[in-house]
Prior knowledge:
The complex is a heterodimer.
Chain A: E1 3-12, E2 15-25, E3 30-34, H1 41-49, E4 56-61, E5 64-65, H2 71-77, E6 79-81, H3 94-106, H4 120-132, H5 148-160, E7 166-170, H6 178-189, E8 196-200, H7 204-210, E9 213-218, E10 221-226, H8 228-233, H9 235-242
Parallel strand pairs in A: 3-8, 3-9, 6-7, 7-8
Antiparallel strand pairs in A: 1-2, 1-4, 4-5, 9-10
Chain B: H1 3-11, H2 13-19, H3 25-33, H4 36-39, H5 45-67, H6 76-91, H7 98-120, H8 125-145, H9 147-150, H10 175-196, H11 199-209, H12 213-216, H13 221-247, H14 257-270, H15 276-295, H16 300-314, H17 318-330
Helix pairs in contact in B: 1-2, 5-10, 5-13, 5-14, 5-15, 6-7, 6-13, 7-13, 10-13, 11-13, 14-15, 14-17, 15-16, 15-17
Protein name (chain A): ABC transporter ATP-binding protein
Keywords (chain A): ATP-binding, Nucleotide-binding, Transport
GO molecular function (chain A): ATP binding; ATP hydrolysis activity
Amino acid sequence: MVLSTQSLCKKFGSLEVARDISINLPAGARYALIGPNGAGKTTFINLVTGQLKPDSGRILLDGQDITRTGTADRVRKGLTRTFQINRLFPELTPLESVTLAVCEREGVSANFWRGLSAHRDAIEEGFAILSRLGLADVATRPTRQLAYGQQRLVEIALALATKPKVLLLDEPAAGVPKDESAMLFKVVANLPEDIAVLFIEHDMEIVFSFATQVIVLVGGAVLLQAGPDEVKEDPRVREVYLGSAHV
Amino acid sequence: MTHNQTSAIVESPARWIRSRNRWTIFEILFWIATLAPLYFFPAYLNLASQVAITALFALSVDLVLGYAGIITLGHAMFFGLGAFTAGILSSRYVWGEPISGLLLGGMVAALAGYVTSFLIVRVQHLALIMVTLGLGLLTFELANSLRWLTGGTDGLTGISTWKIFGYFRFDLWGYTSYAYSLAVLFLGFLICRLVVSSSFGLALRGIRENVQRMPAIGSDYKWHLRKVYTISAAIAGIAGALLTQTTNTVTLEVLSFQRSADVVVMLILGGTGRLYGAIIGAVIFLVAKDQLAGINPQYWFLWIGILLMAVVLFMPKGILGGLSRLIRRED
């Protein structure tokens, strides 16, 4: 398993936002994390990536305990996320943004005595990532000028620049019109096969066509983990989440 | 984006990055123009030296404020530390060699910057302003109470600065002072330009644009902040030492809150995060002060206040930001 959580628990006061969550992500996984609003999906990602500290439980990356490791260190070890609401660098161009992420990964961003253009490999790698996501044409415009869907792609490009082993996508298509969101998920589906991907998504059509496994989270606890077909048919899932009329 | 531009980037994105950082004709003309006081305005050479020194100080503040987004109201502490270091070196230890005085002033300030940077990176927003303000005031009072070392309210006298490279004597008219100040300003500018155009400079802009995202791309951004704060303190210290050496006096004024606040006003006037804004801001501020104080010595700050409000209202990115927008629109 590339990523495992063992009995993760977290309380905000008396509210249990994570209850005994244990999941395993194998290499190359395409897993979806679903659940009604307030089920604790984003909280779970915050726990795994270190924005929140769990009250108990362990997180293992490649068998190594990272429960007490800081966020930036986890990223450098290969555990990266994207955000539901864009967290980009508005005045930087996508090329600069992604190059920055590559430079941080390569440990050259502390270098203040050589011009940025001397880090040719980093710039070219950054541009290659953008090209793969179809952003070559807008690579040199300030990010804030990009269309919203393109900004969602920059989110993913920034994550890819860290060379993740595990990629946690928090609603990659949030706020994107339905026809464009399918396009975004094609990008997700075409991510390098060795990356383990866990994504949060509300659109069940997308979940069932892109995920090989679906984890259902309700009230901070895992209700069920199964293949899409089984999840679709599960009466408990229908009841708490999908609504009886849906699917 | 036209097709041609796109294909040029595809060919070499690194070249595109480099092209953004090339020296422009405006920059070259600007630096040639800085020689004008030597030939055309010899009566204003002392003012010109003041401007060059203050511009160097403003550059150091632009690094932290304009690029890394650290809002400071206490940067005079580093300027003053450099000034007093050079002054004490000369008046107490009878060492007036200018270059080593500059370097030592920069080093003392850098050390103070490094130590305080651990505090700086722990706070943000209003708390950050208060911490920088508090550190500045503390340093001022510390210098005030260490009379035996700093001369207290009387300041330091008996400073004499030796010939530069053992050759160029400081003359009465200020030719040497200005040439020396300008040369140090230019070197300081080159260092700042290198810093902001490096991968480190890109990381600083990332911090300014979205500090919360930085850990998520694997960045230990607090280390970046400590580093830029130290570099900035060193440059401010060199500017302070330069003031001591060109005026042969140091008073507590070098550590004053007024100096910390003035430099922020200059940056806002000129435009933050673009280096030249710091220099232009210093020129406008000090020339206006000189001219307006000639008209009415009591109320000159009134006009600076009006100018400041006009700039903030109509050119939120400073005078240089407003100009560059005008030029781009005409293209």
